[in-house]
User: Fold this.
Amino acid sequence: MPHTRLLLLSNSTDAEGRYLHHAAAELRDLLGEGPREILFVPYAGVTISWERYAERTREALAPLGYRVTSVHEAPDREAAVRAAAAIAVGGGNTFHLLRALYAHGLVEAVRERAAAGVPYVGWSAGSVVACPTMRTTNDMPIVEPPSLAALGLVPFQINAHYTTFHPPGFRGETRAERLAEFVAANPGVPVLGLPEGMMVRVRGDDVRLAGTPTSAPAAAVFGVPGVSEAPAGERLDFLRASARPRAAPAP
Ligand code: ASP
Assistant:
């Protein structure tokens, strides 16, 4: 999509507990100098009220000069999306988020606005739903959206909070094993394992990684032959180029 302007963060909170602090420079670059109004989508919040979640985001973005309104307060939510100057989608539970986007008829509206160049920032679940499907989430399916198909603003998948940590003696799958299963079952759909501290920056066809990884040594790439890591700062054209979904192997 030639006009898309996206910032897809792995996580919102840094090791010191500061909310959206590590992304301040990239947020400014995406959204411009304030004042600017941002429409917040709080639907990934489950144990936090949407009021409190919106308030938290408002407090984090106010010092950058941005005003936040929340879509859940709008009398006509789809109209609010269609009128938004910028859209921010918060993290939490990805199933909960996507179910609400479908329930309120917002999937198409967000997709169209982002494709038209309205800046979109997502963190965690908000980054996962920017992908073709939400099937690379880490979350538990606590609710059931009508489909796992998501916004498709980028042609590859993101796994947020990517980590190489595996407790000694723990027998469950590593994150890398889980993502290797995804690409085996979904040939032609590459996955970017995005460590905390990192973010994907999209300006039309220009896709790059920014930030500093804190939960893994580097961003990991799955499903692209011969590539296992993505370097920060360089264009990630190989992700775009190898995104050619093929039929999954028969069960
Ligand atoms: N639960 C995560 C979030 O913070 C999403 C994920 O881990 O896939 O939004």
